[in-house]
TrEMBL record:
Protein name: Uncharacterized protein
Active site: S221, D302, H336
A molecular-function term among this protein's GO annotations: fatty acyl-CoA hydrolase activity
One Pfam match: BAAT_C
The organism's place on the tree of life at top rank: Eukaryota
Length: 392
């Protein structure tokens, strides 16, 4: 819920002339840019916009921003910079958290609620189907768009239980299979076999709604080196998106290089060695053997590991073998967890491999820009390299 108000506790009464608009709709997809505008205010009136959301566990999330209306009595978050609040500058989605968000406009002088509205942000659009698949040697979750297609297919290699990226891609016209990298066992990082991912690729290619002759593969962090391995050793892969990944899956981190901080978090960026020495050469995935197109994306403020250095190593390897089937993009100020756009910023979190809470890095505004730009780039990249034809 979003409210426009003053700094004080909200009053019950709302102004009849103040309007709070949320476009394109009060119900939209999670990755839609929401246009927030307030009209009917007095010229130069100071107001506070408050946003609150409650997740499925009952935890509350809140944000606020103070604005001064223009001479026509309007506040437009796509145009106006904050005077104070949870974020600074012009950020159209700066107030937002996921799921159901309540907005209100509150008069700064007396705390009266002037207008309020609720925006529901959805992961699955109307007609998108979710199906658990357990067969042919793998377990995954399949998302299919409405209609018969044909649609391009994407294999999403996930390092966490979230299905948001896969569901949102299905809304945009992709058949997406998300397959977890890790299981729930303690030895989850010991061995990863490509057979299950090969089976998932073949399942997608045989699906009645899929029209692409090859599938796309996408991975973030540890999911990336698996994606690179699938592209290098499994037939049927036409495009790969690598997000903040590394290319030496067999190298183990040096935990002695993790730095304990006074906050209780750990800095682990230097724990993973860069595979430049002769002794590490055989640990690198031979991506030059792949026929797929690659999109390498790296965050310049990644504190999980040196994503830019890993990306540069991958680019150099491709060039050394005379390959030009890749694009490389780096994002200044972005941290490790490049999620779908308009997601809450994650500066830190629990590391499933290191078993400790770590810094992910990133500056909120720059990170948000990177997520929005990369999400558009991923869709353009897959559409370009995964051509669809109707099946006979």
């Amino acid at each position: 819920r979003v409210r426009v108000s003053e700094h004080r506790v909200s009053a019950q009464k709302m102004s009849s002339r103040v309007r709070l608009s949320l476009l394109p709709s009060i119900r939209c997809m999670f990755d839609d840019l929401l246009k927030i505008r307030v009209t009917g205010l007095s010229s130069q009136q100071d107001v506070v916009l408050r946003a609150s959301a409650t997740d499925e566990k009952g935890s509350n999330f809140n944000s606020w921003a103070e604005f001064r209306a223009d001479h026509s009595g309007q506040v437009d978050l796509s145009r106006d910079a904050t005077l104070n609040g949870s974020y600074s500058g012009v950020q159209p989605m700066g107030l937002l958290c996921p799921h159901m968000v309540h907005f209100s406009v509150v008069n700064k002088q007396d705390g009266q609620i002037l207008a309020q509205e609720t925006n529901e942000r959805c992961i699955l659009g109307d007609g998108v189907q979710r199906q658990t698949v357990t067969e042919q040697g793998f377990t995954g979750v399949l998302f299919t768009p409405p209609g018969s297609g044909p649609f391009p297919a994407v294999l999403n290699l996930s390092t966490s239980p979230t299905e948001k990226r896969a569901g949102l891609l299905a809304n945009r016209g992709f058949v997406v299979m998300t397959v977890p990298i890790f299981n729930r066992k303690a030895d989850q990082t010991e061995r990863l076999h490509l057979d299950q991912y090969e089976a998932a690729v073949q399942y997608l290619l045989q699906h009645s709604k899929v029209g692409s002759a090859e599938v796309g593969v996408m991975g973030l962090s540890k999911g990336t080196d698996v994606a690179l391995s699938v592209a290098s050793f499994v037939r049927g892969v036409g495009a790969v998106v690598s997000i903040n990944g590394c290319n030496p899956p067999a190298l183990r981190p040096d935990l002695s290089k993790c730095i304990a901080l006074s906050s209780g978090l750990y800095m682990v960026k230097n724990a993973m060695p860069i595979p430049t020495s002769a002794e590490h050469r055989d640990t690198v995935v031979p991506i030059e053997k792949a026929s797929a197109q690659f999109l390498f994306a790296a965050s310049e403020d990644d504190l999980n590991w040196d994503s830019v250095a890993f990306m540069e190593q991958m680019v150099e390897r491709m060039k050394h073998h005379g390959r030009n089937n890749f694009e490389a993009i780096s994002y200044p100020g972005a941290g490790h967890i490049l999620d779908t756009p308009f997601s809450p910023f994650e500066a830190s979190g629990f590391h499933g491999v290191f078993k400790m809470s770590v810094l992910w890095g990133g500056e909120p505004a720059a990170h948000a820009r990177a997520e929005e730009q990369l999400w558009k780039k991923i869709q353009e990249f897959f559409r370009k390299h995964l051509r669809c034809e109707a099946k006979l």
